[in-house]
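FW: tagging you since you asked about this chain on Friday. Here's the raw sequence from the shared folder, copied in full. Didn't touch anything.
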Amino acid sequence: MSLPKTLAEDVAKNLVMVAKLLDEEPERAYQYSRVALRLASRVAAVREAAGFASYAVGKYAEALAEFRAARRMTGNSELWPVMADCERGMGRPERALAMAGEPEVQKLDRAGQVEMRMVAAGARRDMGQADAAVVTLQSPELASNSIQPWTARLRYAYADALLAVGREDEAREWFAKALEADQSGSTDASDRLAELDGVEFVDALDPEETADDDTAQPVGGATAGEPEAGEPEAGEPEADALPSDEDMVEPEADSAEPVAEAVSEGQTAGFENDGEDSEDGDGR
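HL: got it, structure written out here
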């Protein structure tokens, strides 16, 4: 569906911000997605972006409705794994497991099928079937030495499943393999390895330790309550602490607000959500 130029630009700006903020500031990304959704609810890309933004903040029912709407608009099955994971998030792992056996899975590319396998394993664990989760993850992709975008996460999931059934030595081996493949830092495999090895990291800037250090008396310093020579009296700011005129910068107006420019009634006509897209079109 095409949009009037001005409206399309407003929608695009909001979608760009959703993509930019999704990983680091999901709450803000969610707000931008809601603006885009109000402007163009009949655009599949908008519904999909809104779904991922809702998913990122744990609004799984809302995310599932958006993913279903996007799927109806496009006819694609690529969102099937994340839709199943939404079912898990809503406390319905049995539905996620049922989706793993649907014909739609065969339409997924290899990455999608690996993702579906991890969701199914998670559903098994949700249902208390930890051993079955281990078996679910055993696959040619797991055994392969080839590094793919999903390799680190798949190995990590397998290591975590092994740990859940008490196979600690094997879990350590697979966390190490996950770390080896994790070039983008998408997992905390290094922390899990350290935990298994009994390594404890100490924060050099621990506020409690800093507080203890502050209680120590200075050696050779001024008597408590008496400032040293050249030191400002109590309550008097140091000269270096005062900002200069050059340091004071006015904030840019409207630099981080969702884009919701005024749109005429003629532009938005036909783009308001009629309510049908958010219904459970799959009968769930």
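FW: Confidence is low (pLDDT under 50) at residues 215-256, 260-284.
HL: agreed, and The two ends are 27 Å apart (CA to CA).
FW: great, closing this out.
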